[in-house]
Amino acid sequence: MLTIYGFPFLTFNVLKVMLTAEYSGVIYRYEKLNPAKKEHKSPENLSRSLIGLVPTIETEEGHLGESGAICRYLAKRYQPALYGESLIDQGKVDQWVDVFAQEFGRHITTFFYQEVVRSKMMGQPVDAPAIEAAQKRLSWQLPIIDEGLRNHGHLVGQQLTIADLVAFAYLSISESTSFGFSNFEHINRFYGDIKGGEAFQKVQSQFEQ
To answer: All domains of the chain, ordered by start, with CATH?
Structure first.
């Protein structure tokens, strides 16, 4: 059985992986590691992750870390259509996943780090210039995402892929920070469709108190 390791609270990187597992149709269990006890830095998790981060997974084939790599693996193994129907579509999926990791997502997660990690968890003041710089970058990047969703409601082709699930996970940061996308029609529709779906509801139910 597939085991996914993460924290007792849902993070955007774990969300990417759990959504991919749900849409892949694979049976899995979620193992919660206690960050206060640094269980993610334990020898066991370090054997699954190069640098002791979550999520990580364990399968009968072996272990793997890094959310993007895990999503690709799950799609290829259990539901290849999630990775694109053709080689060019797979390349486009990689393109979106990579640009979210390197650009769009990096600036969206600035809000999470500043307003959740620094402010709420560490009790430190928010770095307002960092938020301002991230917002400035996103002011021209969000329209690119919105345009990408215009024709078919998905980032690649006419059906859902891991590119959409990765995008949704980053956009979910809007639920806990001042980051938002209410002015973007296609992003709003896309986000609402996945949020209202059975897969997300199943993931979310595993973190309800």
So the answer is: 2-81+199-205 (3.40.30.10), 83-197 (1.20.1050.10)
